[in-house]
Amino acid sequence: MTLLELNSGDTAWILISAALVLLMTPGLAFFYGGMVRAKGVLNMMMMSFISMGVIGVLWVLFGYSMAFGNSVGGAGIIGNPLEFAGLESLLTNDPEASYPALAFVAFQACFAIITVALVSGAIADRASFGGWTLFAVLWGTLVYFPAAHWVFAFSNEDAGVVGGWIANQIKAVDFAGGTAIHINAGTAALALALVVGPRIGFGTKPMRPHNMTLVMLGAALLWFGWFGFNAGSAVAANGLASLAWVNTLAATAAAMLGWLIVEKLRDGHPTSLGAASGIVAGLVGITPAAGAVSPIGAIVLGLVAGVACAYAVGLKYKLGFDDSLDVVGVHLVGGLVGTLLIGFLADPAASYLANPDTTEPVAGLFYGGGFDQLWRQAVGAFAVMAFSFVMSYLIALVVKHTVGWRVSTSDELGGIDLAEHSEAGYDLSPVYYSSRVGHTLVLTKDDFPETDKTGASK
């Protein structure tokens, strides 16, 4: 057995990346929160925050084990949920590892959290908080953890470890989660939109974002955190991480430009919402390909993702499903674009950067690889899509017929924040703070002197 010293640089980068990815979920809360109407901003943000609580606990208890444990029966379908249950067995250092196992646990926990939170945007402004929380528990356990095993768990023959079937048998490339995260969440969003039904007034009344400042702040935090999301997936501070970082920048910039060009040509003006949405579309598209394409390939991929998603978000009006915040149009479509374009744009040089000793570099159609990688990407993408839709639809039906999905009509019209959380995102009552006595004063009309028509006190 070869004894390796823990690499402090790699360990530090993984932990920093984990923190960056965790920051993305509050960033998503701002992004989604700004896009809904003012009376539902807190409920929308709480859907992201409760995902942090629920999945954070489940990941420690059995989620990590289901995703990265040895495959039950060697079939590559699900990891043994008891192998790392409670993470007790990971409290020792592996002499063959260059970074602590718990650093990887932390990093992947943040992936699980934001994947669940992404789905919530499809049912904004009408779903009960209890229904969403139950869905988060069931969906994380029955859909995300198995899908993560399929895509992220790699076999180790020397250690007798069998990983997921997409990663090891199909050998589809998914560097940071285009299938397990974005296609998975986008497909689940479609299933939920169909089961929960549309908002009152969908398609007939304007439902504009109430606070574009929050949206832009959320997009900025997502882009910032996504460098940890993608570059951190190299699981080392090395050249592959650097490639993923540059590709994340290039693709996202190109996607934003692509979305704005579509808006300018189609609508006559580029918008801040379009810029923010284009950023997210580019981030989604480059996620599976960040370590597989060249920077030029990243620009091409980002541009295609930005244009495709800009057109895809309008499909909900034509097809009649209410995906409130365009999770389907951005995450499902963007994830499909990024995953499938690997089959065309995969650069063998990236494979050598990842492993200089590789004898099987991944080459896309445009790099002489033929259709070999393309069919692998297609199988991985559509398998996750089919699994996610069926399971998500069934789970959504369970929630509908148990705790229920919809708040009452009066609560939806009056404000879901007050109904579900007894709070308001923006309290506009005349509340002032008195520094003299150190407490809050609530002033009424009796506290103000009466005036005559000239404004003088009576």
Notes on the structure:
This protein has 458 residues and is mainly α. It is 61% helix and 2% strand. It contains 16 helices and two strands. It has helices at residues 8-35, 41-68, 101-119, 129-152, 165-170, 178-196, 212-231, 239-267, 272-286, 295-312, 315-319, 327-345, 348-354, 372-400, 409-414, 416-421, and strands spanning 431-434, 439-442. The radius of gyration is 24 Å and the shape is globular.
Tally of alpha and pi helices: 16
Oligomer: single chain
**N-to-C SSE series?**
HHHHHHHHHHHHHHHHEE
Secondary-structure-derived class: mainly alpha
**Uncertain parts:** 432-444, 453-458
Q: How would you sum up the global shape?
A: globular
The end-to-end distance, rounded to whole angstroms, is: 93 Å
Strand content: under 5%
Strand order of the largest sheet: 1-2
Give the total of beta strands: 2
Helix content: 55-70%
* Largest beta-sheet details: 2 strands, antiparallel
Q: What is the CA-atom radius of gyration, in angstroms?
A: 24 Å
The whole-number mean of residue pLDDT values reads: 93
